[in-house]
């Protein structure tokens, strides 16, 4: 029953019936969870199957589809035999940089590891985002505080008295407990709650850093995903939920990034990119590419950082925000600096400053509230530091600290740590120790201090560099405090 290649899959379309592609995709994901398969199905994947672009699903999707439609074969579902499509590459979709959720010629699981995902502006044919994003999301979303999620999303989910929620099975009923009724279809109130959760997480991150927020923010994201799966009352609400869930994925990705979980961050950013493409949301896409570029630089993939920053600038150009394009130019500059390309870095920095000088406007995204003159100076300092221009980097970092709004405690700690690093590298140990001591005061051990693995790592490297100057009266006390903070061995 093999179909004519690239002919529409009418059999599969018939099985969808009156459900929308998004509703059917949600049913596929639910069926996957029933049998322990994690598939990142969405409306776009369903459309590609129905159009005939996907001639045969990968093994994970095969198991899910046969579970959904017992008694049927792949041929009954309109798919071609696997042996007839294996080895053929997928046709490139013009303008498409991310094709996710399936593989036409996926080998069995034992055949070898899935190639790493490298989001970029224009990858070659057959590039895909597979189920990695969904698997990792669900693995990390099952922990955290249900109470925080209820507060963040405005969804009450109290556990029965004496019962403990089971982190291993979201939605499972604890033994002896009465299962709560299922959630109603989300409306404007739920979309408001998702958007408020994004704001709240960003506010807490601005003040305290990532380490204590990561798991709790993950729980909020899991609940936002559940709202999307439930299906919104109106299309406008669905669009808000997609945008909100995408922004939440970016926030959780950033918290993973800042707490040193680079692989997890990459998966969350990939999920946000997929959500942006599904929803046709260029603002979300630009944000996801922006953060992916930043992560790639920190993770030692500078070429990817440049590509993602350039892709973000292309997407952002029609959005009308000069400040957004300025930040994206800085992301590109960071990639060039990591590559040691001083000329390209200078050009990108020049564009960033020119665009910044155009001032704010109504089109600036809400998430860019952190981006002002202080952030511009701080990111410039990172570029000069990567290029080995430590004196210039220290001057920019000092300006970033002086200009920073007191609300952004985490960024004050970050740029002071950058200042300490460049002073130490520039042969000014006394000033470096003084700056490092200020960071230790902001980190602290008490409730309310900044908790950021990234900042601690920077300060640890500075303390290690200063150990050769321990006899200096200004350096010794700092090193003692660094040992007390477990930044150096005792």
Automatic annotation (TrEMBL):
Domain of life (superkingdom): Bacteria
Region annotation Disordered: where it falls in the sequence: 86-130, 160-191
SUPFAM superfamilies named in the record: TPR-like
Record-linked InterPro entries: TPR-like_helical_dom_sf
Compositional bias of kind Pro residues: 106-124
Protein name as it appears in the record: Tetratricopeptide repeat protein
Lineage: Bacteria, Bacillati, Actinomycetota, Actinomycetes, Kitasatosporales
């Amino acid at each position: 029953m093999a179909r004519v290649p690239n002919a529409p899959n009418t059999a599969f379309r018939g099985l969808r019936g009156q459900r929308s592609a998004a509703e059917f995709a949600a049913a596929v994901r639910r069926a996957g969870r029933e049998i322990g398969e994690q598939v990142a199905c969405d409306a776009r994947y369903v459309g590609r199957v129905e159009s005939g672009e996907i001639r045969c699903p990968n093994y994970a999707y095969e198991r899910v589809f046969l579970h959904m439609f017992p008694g049927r074969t792949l041929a009954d579902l309109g798919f071609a035999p696997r042996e007839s499509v294996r080895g053929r590459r997928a046709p490139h979709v013009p303008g498409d940089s991310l094709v996710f959720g399936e593989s036409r010629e996926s080998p069995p699981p034992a055949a070898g590891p899935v190639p790493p995902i490298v989001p970029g502006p224009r990858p070659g044919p057959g590039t895909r985002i597979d189920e990695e994003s969904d698997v990792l999301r669900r693995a990390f979303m099952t922990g955290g505080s249900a109470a925080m999620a209820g507060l963040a999303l405005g969804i009450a989910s109290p556990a029965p008295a004496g019962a403990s929620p089971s982190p291993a099975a979201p939605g499972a009923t604890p033994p002896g407990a009465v299962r709560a009724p299922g959630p109603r279809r989300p409306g404007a109130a739920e979309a408001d709650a998702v958007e408020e959760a994004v704001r709240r997480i960003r506010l807490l991150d601005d003040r305290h850093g990532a380490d204590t927020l990561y798991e709790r923010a993950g729980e909020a994201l899991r609940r936002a995903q559940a709202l999307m799966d439930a299906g919104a009352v109106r299309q406008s609400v669905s669009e808000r939920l997609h945008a909100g869930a995408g922004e939440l994925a970016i926030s959780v990705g950033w918290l993973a990034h800042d707490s040193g979980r680079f692989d997890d961050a990459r998966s969350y950013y990939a999920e946000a990119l997929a959500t942006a493409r599904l929803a046709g949301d260029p603002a979300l896409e630009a944000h996801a590419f922006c953060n992916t570029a930043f992560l790639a630089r920190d993770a030692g993939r500078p070429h990817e950082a440049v590509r993602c920053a350039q892709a973000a600038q292309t997407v952002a150009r029609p959005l009308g925000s000069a400040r957004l394009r300025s930040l994206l130019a800085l992301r590109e500059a960071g990639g060039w600096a990591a590559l040691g390309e001083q000329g390209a870095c200078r050009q990108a920095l020049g564009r960033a400053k020119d665009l910044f000088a155009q001032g704010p406007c109504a089109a600036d995204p809400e998430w860019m509230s952190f981006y002002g003159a202080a952030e511009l100076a701080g990111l410039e300092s990172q570029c000069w530091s990567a290029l080995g221009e430590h004196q210039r980097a220290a001057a920019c970092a000092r300006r970033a600290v002086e200009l920073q709004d007191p609300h952004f405690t985490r960024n004050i700690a970050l740029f002071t740590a950058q200042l300490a690093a460049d002073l130490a590298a520039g042969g000014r140990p006394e000033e470096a120790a003084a700056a490092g001591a200020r960071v230790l005061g902001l980190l602290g051990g008490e409730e309310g201090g900044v908790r950021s693995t990234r900042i601690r790592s920077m300060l640890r490297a500075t303390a290690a560099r200063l150990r050769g100057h321990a006899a200096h009266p200004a350096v010794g006390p700092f090193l003692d405090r660094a040992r007390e903070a477990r930044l150096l061995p005792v």
